[in-house]
Structure prediction request, 383 residues.
Amino acid sequence: MTTSRRGFLSSLRGCLAAGLALKWPLTAVSRDVTFEPSGFGQGDGLIRLNNNENPYGPSTKVADAIKSSLGMAHCYARMEYSSLAERIAAFHNVKQENVLLGCGSTEILRMAATAFLGYGKQLVQAAPTFEAMEYYARAVNSKVLSVHLTSGFSLNLEGMMARTAGARKLVYICNPNDPTASLTPRKDLETFVAKLPASTVVIIDEAYHQYVNRSGMYASFIDHPLNDDRIIVTRTFSTAYGLAGLRLGYAVASPKLVQQMRKFTTEDNINAVVLEAAAVALDDTAGVRQFVQQNENERQEFFNQAMARAFKPIDSHANFVMMDTFHPADVVIQDFHKNKILIGPYFPAMDTYIRVSLGRSEDMRAFWRTWDGLSYLKSSMAH
Prediction:
């Protein structure tokens, strides 16, 4: 990373001195602080099932790390950047030069768009999928080629392949896909990547990796990499780790691709608090397992409740569920909002489907009470 016009050494000396002076008083004060994930915006009375967040917040160990890091919140985190990149590299059994940190994985997508797209170049993606990649592609004057999902809601790889002829392409794959939470088999993705033109760069977004039930159908492209230098895999601390508000994501890719993207990194893009929290989160495997199990329980209960009402959601491999309401989705979204419940946005490619992030048990009970109070949904049980 580059440094700002403030001298690196002088800022480091100042931060170390001030941090030592401030760390203990701030830590002492923060002992009384409790981390309540639903506290943000609590005064508005809204139940938030719209952003695919971990409703339980960070684990106790990570919350303690956040508290203890407050004494350094006034400092730039340049020194810690390299140590966390090294820690992530060790976690994935890769070299530090293969890791690039971002302000959430969305910044990684922005860097990739700026590095590999531009006028005369094209992004190939599914429809619907996570929207950020498309926004960044259009911002650099690239054309976006979107291909509808298959009838089984996996990526239409054959249709996407037909759009990759020629050079100057970037392919974006979100797996599990957002908003459908559906999975595309690993074997199919390997075959697809092998057939792509040599000049094509591939982003595989694994934001919801931790929530996937392990099977022969799925394997991470970090944990089980292909011998292919064109692949960029992105991960985030926003979902299973419960750190969406602190913004940290990363990419694992070949050193060449990392260096090309690093040119477009926002200076001082990682904050001191999340660097400390992330290092602890990586070691807290028990905390992640607990969140995943809680999510699995709520996911199963959602399916139970939906099917009891004669609705069948798309099979979910993430911490959200998408379901056909057989009514205009924008109307359903507005009616839930009127009842103080936020659900996912409207997706034009699937205009009767809603996306519901899985919340705490009491939030999900409120969701179904509201559902049962909407007469047009209740009457759809005979569809």
Remarks:
- Residues 75-283 form a domain with the Aspartate Aminotransferase; domain 2 fold (CATH 3.40.640.10).
- Confidence is low (pLDDT under 50) at residues 1-35.
- The two ends are 57 Å apart (CA to CA).
- The chain has two domains: 75-283, 286-382.
